[in-house]
Design a protein that fits this description.
Number of helices: 2
Number of strands: 7
CATH topology of one domain: Alpha-Beta Plaits
CATH architecture of one domain: 2-Layer Sandwich
Shape: globular
Radius of gyration: 15 Å
């Protein structure tokens, strides 16, 4: 069972308010990026600083994808994960049984997926 931990800025009515992170392997990253852009989004490879690309603990890159309003997250999740080079994306469809939300005022809310 996965428990998601987020701050209040992640709570939205519809997905797409901020860029969707997509983890990709470094080999062929530009081809993978073009395939993602064919889905109708603008992409940007996340940078550590002006020169170096950010790398995950597994040595992969993150492509931040601006899709705008995401109407069908389940389908987008499936399509993204079928693209060669994509490791995972930030939609986390049906993965978290519980989510803990932290608020600026110090309050904590526990949400259970039904």
């Amino acid at each position: 069972m996965m428990i998601g931990v987020v701050d209040e800025t992640k709570l939205v009515e519809k997905l797409g308010k901020f860029p969707l992170p997509v983890e990709v392997v470094p080999f062929g990253v530009e081809l993978t990026r073009r395939r993602i852009e064919e889905l109708g989004c603008k992409t940007r490879i996340r940078m550590r600083d002006e020169k170096d690309r950010y790398q995950t603990d597994n040595g992969n890159y993150i492509i931040d994808c601006e899709f705008g309003r995401i109407e069908n997250p389940e389908k987008l999740n499936q399509v993204l994960n079928m693209i060669p080079g994509v490791v995972e994306n930030g939609l986390f469809i049906k993965l978290a049984a519980r989510v803990v939300v932290g608020y600026k005022n110090g309050n904590i809310e526990r949400m259970i997926r039904t």
